[in-house]
Amino acid sequence: MYALAIHGGAGALPRVPFTAARENAYRQGLMQALDAGERVLERGGCALDAVEAAVASLEDDPLFNAAHGAVLTADGTVELDAAIMDGSDLRAGAVALIRHVRNPVRLARRLLEDAAHVFLVGAGAERFAAQAGFSLVANDYFITPERQQQFEALRQRRLHSPAAAASAAIALEEPPFGTVGAVARDQAGALAAATSTGGTAGKHAGRIGDSPVIGAGTYADNQSCAVSTTGHGEWFLRTVQAYDIAARLRYGGCSLRAAVSEAIERRLVALGAAGGLIAVDQHGEIAMERNTPAMFRASVRAGEPASVHLI
Q1: Does the pLDDT of residue 93 top 80, yes or no?
Q2: Could you list the residue range(s) of the whole structural domain that residue 140 is in?
Q3: Residues in Cβ contact with 90 at an 8 Å cutoff, skipping those fewer than 6 apart
Q4: What percentage of the chain's residues is helix, strand, coil (to nearest 5)?
Q5: What is the pLDDT of residue 178?
Q6: Catalytic residue positions?
Q7: Which helix (H) or strand (E) holds 201?
Q8: CATH number of the domain enclosing 164
Q9: Is there a smaller number of Cβ atoms within 10 Å at the N or the C end of the chain?
């Protein structure tokens, strides 16, 4: 029995409600990504391939804050982070500060497969990409007119009120935070997780959040669960949130839902942190929780209809 869940970001609802066309576009983007991952699982493919396919689909969709369509840094450029992890043997690949690789999750997968290292950043990661045969693109490829407009609005707000910069970055981002991710259980019972992001709008150049950090934003272990997070990255880093949930299952005997609920509804709320996560356990149970008004998410299990939710 296979199971797959994806997310496209968690946070506050936009100040201007989505039009019906806009909402439909987000739903279609989530369904396309879900379909991409499910096709792998339906034919008996591995969970690692499924999460890579699903996240790559979201990276290609300009509506989401990952790769093409990512938010801009304070310098007006795009810096991308991604990670992927195989729960069967705990292999992982992670990249950060990527500026020229079309699909960072695919680079993270290649790192998982081919390199002696887990985590590469910046120019070193992109040299590895070139050596591995990846075609590099101009940084402008990732910048959409909407994100450029958002950057200009944020820049103007900073000029008038520098102290409001951090809150402005969150308020202007749409969908809020916008990180994308996927978790899966394949028919053989293996688990995998992947996460990709452009980070927060107007972030300081060089900032790395939780998404590419194994154990914080991405984690998978066949003995417990697979997790991908989205939201206030600094808090997910500080709480090592993805691993914390896996540890609650493996060592504390918690159910998946109990572990996720404790993390999202109690621990993060007590810290003043906002966000959400998706997880799947070794039995194929899925949990998708957030402490924010909205989280773009979708899921499917073998023999069951797919579900898509924005709030």
Answers
A1: yes
A2: 3-309
A3: 220, 221
A4: 40, 25, 35
A5: 74
A6: 179
A7: none
A8: 3.60.20.30
A9: C
